[in-house]
Amino acid sequence: MEKFGWIGLGNMGKPMALNLLKAGHDGIVWNRTKAKADAVVAAGAKWAGTPRGAAEGVDFLFVSLADGATLLEVALGEDGFAAGLSAGAIVIETSTISVAESTKLAEAIEAKGASYLRAPVTGSTILAAAGTIGILTSGDKAAYDKVLPLLEVIGGNLFYLGAGEQARVMKLSLNLMIATTMQMEAEALVIAEKAGLDVGQAADIIAGSAVGSPLTGYKAKLIAGGEYAPAFTVKLMIKDLKLALEAGRQYGVKLESTERTKKRLERAAEKGWGEKDFSILTKLLEEESGFTR
Ligand code: NAP
Question: With DSSP H G I counted as helix, E B as strand and the rest as coil, what are the percentages for the chain, rounded to 5?
Fold first, then answer.
């Protein structure tokens, strides 16, 4: 059994850490809000008082935080996790961040003689809980081979993409498609609703059709229910689309649908829905179209 550290026990971090514990691995965890670690500590993990403490003496350190700025704040400094890393340890960083932020993190980790795997995850909290989340990884291949048995516990769809920042870019490519898909679905559903169709039935038809996907499948119920409890928040999706647009500028690619969808999500955030699921784009268009269910 391996000794692992885990930093960040949010909607994604918590179920993934729990899966490692359930598989019998020995964990030490840190989260800014300590109460959110309760379930993980109850499942057998130790509590580390600081990010540094979660990195000390472990062979594998997993990280899942909101964004790049948070990540660098938690990584650097006297009590940051980079300071606690042993030479030879492997950091598996699963958050969605920019290439520039990732490169800065690489310097801090490599200065300690540790290895750094960029391992953004793809899929929802449901897949994270089921241990079937997709994991896109790039970085040192020997480190990847060592951590693979643990990745197989938390994920079902594993890809190794290269020695550098490839996984960061691929993750943003996927997320821009996920966001624009929800905007397309909002348009398809609201026109159907206004024409008198039942939204749940229409969402199920989309999910089962040629344009259906795992995403349209697991969002169908959420949209039909109308509550939009967050699996992935509006706020975080805006962050990802900003990163995708930044990558678009970096590589000289015009991303028009992404730009428009970001504006739609910003409008949703202005309505106070920043912590709702990003599929709330349907509700936004309903309201703007004068439709009440
Ligand atoms: P989340 O539930 O909002 O959790 C965010 C985590 O970041 C929490 O542990 C939070 O700590 C911590 N955090 C935020 N601000 C902080 C600060 N200033 N200092 C220290 N810690 C801070 O987010 P999530 O859904 O788990 O997402 C985590 C990462 O995975 C993000 O990069 C996201 O883009 C990516 N992702 C999410 C999904 C999804 O479906 N949710 C799917 C794929 C990828 P507290 O508990 O104290 O707030």
Answer: 55, 15, 30
